[in-house]
Write a structure and sequence with these properties.
The complex is a heterodimer.
Chain A (H helix, E strand, L loop, with lengths): L1 H15 L1 H38 L2 E5 L16 H12 L7 E7 L1 H11 L17 E6 L5 H7 L6 E6 L1 H43 L1 H9 L4 H42 L8 H30 L3
Antiparallel strand pairs in A: 1-3, 1-4, 2-3
Chain B lengths: L5 E8 L9 E8 L4 E5 L6 H8 L7 E6 L2 E2 L8 H6 L1 E5 L10 H10 L5 H14 L15 H13 L5 E5 L7 H16 L3 E6 L2 H7 L2 E6 L2 E6 L9
Parallel strand pairs in B: 3-8, 3-9, 6-7, 7-8
Antiparallel strand pairs in B: 1-2, 1-4, 4-5, 9-10
The chains are: A alpha+beta, B alpha/beta.
Chain lengths: 304, 233
């Protein structure tokens, strides 16, 4: 009986204030779209980190012939130098950071080069003999790259230490800035949404003050009087949140899984499944936000 | 010792510190089944007494007990339960225009969680009592003023409250219709409900010869059984 009554009140409230409810739905939709985008961006960053940090290595390039680097005055790295470098990588100082060390000789380097630039004008431009030999180092913690770099900065026979993560870090930097921007916009929009919900509830309470006045008079409990208004705000916000989750799902499915994946093979990208994880978070944020702003407003305007 | 239904003990109320007190040291009691007229000029404090009983206001000082319970110390979550034991009618009826007579009366039960079964027995009963049987499906705008006030009375007493507060219930009605409303209130009073009625209508007070409490500038100046509206009459 009571549930039926509350629901019919909610329905009539939603209908009477249709334009206000619609604006709550839309503002919630846009704000949570940005919240969702921020979360997905961070998921993407995390996924890429997992994927790349697992594979990417620090390369310790050895001196080739005729290098002008300061550590290469003795010409091409000789066997003693190579032995020293390898020993240092395996020394007790560096061993805790190093997971695996792998030596890439000229032949392999040449094969990788040919493969990497296959079909481009660079293919075949560098002869096998001019390739750098290198130690490929896989770190236990990919972020500890500086330690390797420091250790070999003045070692004879080392031309350069390159961290392939640096390239990725730049990409992550861009993604992180995008996240911050999305969060900032989402924050402003969420404030808008809360204010709008408060206004809507106030309007709704005002248009039904006759009913609520009688309810109070005949002894309806406060929570019973407030529940329809609260649900009104929460339902509008939940609709907005569901719309934003749906939109993110479509964007990811067609935009990222569909288009971007075909353009950028070799990258691990977020999928529609990740959106399924984000959807409940968005709906929870929407519901909590609407509930909180409704309650604050209601306690001000429908007191016993 | 039996508990009195309404008990005001040295109650004062001022709405803000600088203006004079709306009620100044009021003490009175009303027992079960009594019919009490509250008379006095506008601004004498009649409405404040009603608001205090409903706990829409709390007194600045003094004690108020309704059915043995202190209204002043009552936590706000208990206030709705206090109000379920008090029916209230006003000069302006306060009906819901988009609901039928039946729905208006049932509304009072609906919002305190009464079952549909309870409604289907209680509502026709009370409509019978106030003389509106057969008009269940009408809307307020299809009724006369007197009939609308009967609906409001029905709504006030459908939950069988111990107290019925009436704030100028005949203020918008002509003398004949007012007399009809008074007979409805008397009938409800005879069934055991304490009626406290604030009014300006001297004719009604003089004809009914019930207890009269007269307020003037927030003081009780007269409290007599079988009283009249003015001292002179």
């Amino acid at each position: 009986m009571r549930a039926g009554f509350v629901l019919s009140e909610v329905w009539s409230g939603l209908r009477k204030n249709f334009s206000m409810v619609l604006s709550v739905v839309l503002v919630t939709f846009v704000s949570l779209l940005f919240v969702g985008a921020a979360i997905l961006l961070q998921m993407q960053v995390g996924q890429m980190k997992d994927y790349w940090y697992d594979r990417v290595q620090v390369s310790v390039f050895l001196c080739p012939q005729d290098s002008e680097a300061t550590n290469c005055v003795d010409g091409e790295a000789n066997d003693t130098q190579k032995k020293n470098i390898e020993d240092e990588l395996k020394s007790s100082e560096l061993a805790p950071y190093v997971d695996k060390v792998y030596f890439e000789d000229k032949g392999e380097a040449f094969d990788h080069f040919q493969e990497q630039f296959k079909g481009t004008s660079l293919e075949g431009t560098v002869p096998e003999d001019e390739m750098n030999e290198s130690f490929r180092v896989k770190l236990k913690d990919a972020e500890k790259y500086d330690i390797i770099k420091e250790s070999f900065s003045s070692t004879p026979g080392v031309e350069e230490v390159v961290d392939q993560n640096q390239l990725l870090d730049r990409l992550f930097g861009v993604l992180n800035i995008a996240t911050v921007v999305a969060v900032a916009i989402a924050g402003i929009m969420l404030v808008c949404a809360m204010l709008l919900i408060a206004t809507t509830i106030r309007l709704s309470a005002f248009s039904r003050r006759r009913e609520t006045g009688i309810m109070r008079l005949v002894g309806a409990s406060n929570s019973f009087i407030q529940l329809p208004f609260l649900l009104e705000g929460v339902i509008a916000a939940a609709i907005g949140a569901s719309l934003s989750a749906g939109t993110l799902g479509l964007l990811v499915h067609f935009g990222i899984s569909g288009w971007l994946q075909s353009q950028a093979t070799g990258f691990s990208l977020i999928s529609g499944l990740d959106v399924l994880l984000v959807a409940p978070i968005l709906i929870a944020i929407g519901v909590i936000m609407a509930g909180a702003s409704s309650l604050i407003t209601l306690n001000k305007y429908t007191k016993v | 010792m039996k508990t009195l239904l309404i008990k005001f003990d040295s109650v004062s109320k001022s709405y803000d510190a600088r203006s004079r007190k709306a009620l100044d040291d009021i003490t009175f009691e009303a027992d079960r089944g009594e019919f009490v007229f509250l008379v006095g000029a506008s601004g004498s404090g009649k409405s404040t007494v009603i608001r205090l009983i409903l706990r829409e206001e709390v007194p600045s000082s003094g004690r108020i007990h309704i059915a043995g319970k202190s209204v002043v110390k009552m936590p706000s979550w208990k206030v709705p339960y206090l109000r379920r034991g008090i029916g209230t009618v006003f000069q302006d009826f306060r009906l819901l225009p988009n609901k039928t007579v039946f729905a208006n009366v049932a509304f009072a039960l609906q919002v305190i969680g009464k079952s549909r079964a309870a409604m289907s027995t209680l509502v026709p009963d009370v409509l019978e009592t106030v003389g509106l049987a057969g008009k269940e499906k009408r809307y307020p705008n299809e009724l006369s003023g007197g009939e609308q006030q009967r609906v409001a009375i029905a709504r006030a007493v459908v939950n069988k409250p111990g107290i019925l507060l009436a704030d100028e219930p005949t203020g918008n009605l002509d003398p004949t219709t007012s007399a009809d409303i008074m007979s409805v209130l008397e009938k409800i009073n005879r069934n055991g409900t304490t009626v406290l009625m604030a009014t300006h209508d001297g004719e009604i007070v003089n004809r009914m010869r019930k207890r009269v409490i007269e307020l003037s500038d927030g003081h009780i100046v007269r409290d007599v059984e079988q009283g009249t509206y003015g001292v002179a009459s």
